[in-house]
Amino acid sequence: MKPFRQRSKSLLALSSTALAIPGIASGDAPPPQTTLSYKFSNYNEDDMSRSQVPFGSLERYDIDVHQFRLLTPVGRDYSLQIDANHENMSGASPWFTTAGTNGSPIINMSGASGITDERSELAVGVRYYLSDGSIGGAVGYSEENDYRATYFSFSGQKTINEGMTTVSVGISHSADDIFPTDAAIFNRVRNADKQSSSAVISISQIINQRSTFQLAGSLTEQSGFLSDPYKFRDVRPDNKTQIALSGAYRYFVVNADAALHTDYRYYHDDFGVSSHTLSVAWHQNLGNRWQLVPNLRYYSQSAADFYTNIDDFLKPLTEFQSSDYRLSAYGAFSGGASIVASINDWTATLTAERYVADHKHSAYAVTQPGAALVSYTRVSLGFDFTF
Fold first, then answer.
1. Rounded to the nearest 5°, which phi and psi values hold at 184?
2. For 361-382, what is each residue's pLDDT tens digit?
3. Cα–Cα distance, 317 to 294 (Å, whole number)
4. Predicted pLDDT of residue 276
5. Which residues pair with 358 in a beta bridge?
6. How far is the C-alpha of 279 from the C-alpha of 200, rounded, in Å?
7. What does the CA dihedral 48, 52, 58, 62 come to, rounded to 10 degrees?
8. Under DSSP, is residue 7 helix (H, G, I), strand (E, B) or coil?
9. Distance CA 384, CA 111 (A)
10. Is the N end or the C end of the chain the one with fewer CB atoms within 10 Å?
């Protein structure tokens, strides 16, 4: 059998078709070149229907996102990564629900003129590379009109089994401050805080020259103010435990010069929400410069224990309740495609995605159909320059 360092050359097909899994892809050496990246995305939610919203605005969120990244080697054993993001948001969201004449939910939106907001984020990370692994850390800060978050993370990975197996671990923590801008007008919470800590472990395995897989598990603990301050009647527990288990498989099809990506994720939290996510993508090389990547995804979740699709304003505030559609039982299909063009030191990626959610798509039992489930369209255009 040839040594892995020689055999790994035939694994270039994995990375050239975006096959490599996190943990395998990062390698044991700093990036050989500096890469500057920029991506613009537009996220646009479908308008509500007049049958759901008898009065007021039907418009939902329209968000423009600008993302910048610098990834560069520093000396022989380090790399530096800087991420900067900026978002502009406008639109409206569900405020509370009442019962219509037929008993179905009537949605009251958050103001006739909608909401405008901006968010800026900056994160800096450093990684040190060893002969058989790497360790790194990052710090970040995010701020918008009514929310601040400060976070940090540490991670490490080690390759074993002659480079065929990679074990990765990571921890992160975020401290968030919440201060609604219209608290005095609507008698909302004036100021609150939230803490979130996560730990993740993953094992990535190269099966052969054409295939890899990864298994990962994560645990997240949240505490503090977990309710939505912009809902008229939203009371949630002040602690939440989340677990997630995921698997990913990559297979390179030599005759087609393409790669199949399949991913599955199971999630559960003690709000009572469980979910399944299954996604499939096909990375098709078109010559040496082009790549086409169609993809499909299915998602389904159960409802939180305290979800209701019609707010009960007579219920004591000591009892948990939320009409947030994100806590209802529903299913969602999404599909899209990316076109990637690589010319010399430049790479351009154009992506379009369509997402449709409906309680009829749920794999779980639905006793109270979610009001105001979101469907959206998202498009993005990104550029990478390597030098």
1. -70, -35
2. 999 999 999 989 999 999 999 9
3. 47
4. 98
5. 331
6. 21
7. -30
8. helix
9. 40
10. N
According to DSSP, the residues that pair with 129 across neighbouring strands are 134
Residue 321 per-residue DSSP state:
B
Domain range holding 198? 4-386
Cα(166)–Cα(168) distance, rounded to whole angstroms?
A: 6
Beta-bridged to residue 177, according to DSSP, are 148, 193
* C-alpha closest to that of 282 among 318, 336, 355: 336
The two three-digit tokens of residue 350, written as one number:
């154009």
How many domains is the chain built from?
Answer: 1
Residue that has been written with the tokens 């939230």 in this structure: 194
Tens digit of each residue's pLDDT (9 = 90 or more) over 54-83: 877 788 999 999 999 999 999 999 999 999
Count Cβ atoms below 10 Å from residue 103 Cβ, excluding itself. Answer: 7
Kindly report the CATH number assigned to the domain that includes residue 162: 2.40.160.40
Classify residue 18 by its DSSP letter.
T
Residue ranges of alpha helices (H) inside the chain are 4-7, 12-16, 183-186
Phi, psi of 12 (to 5 degrees): -60, -25
Contact 208, 221 (CB under 8 A): no
Beta strands in the chain (DSSP E): 35-45, 62-74, 78-91, 94-99, 105-109, 115-130, 133-144, 147-160, 165-178, 192-206, 211-224, 239-253, 258-269, 274-286, 290-301, 330-343, 346-358, 376-386
Residue 80 in contact with residue 98, Cβ under 8 Å?
A: no
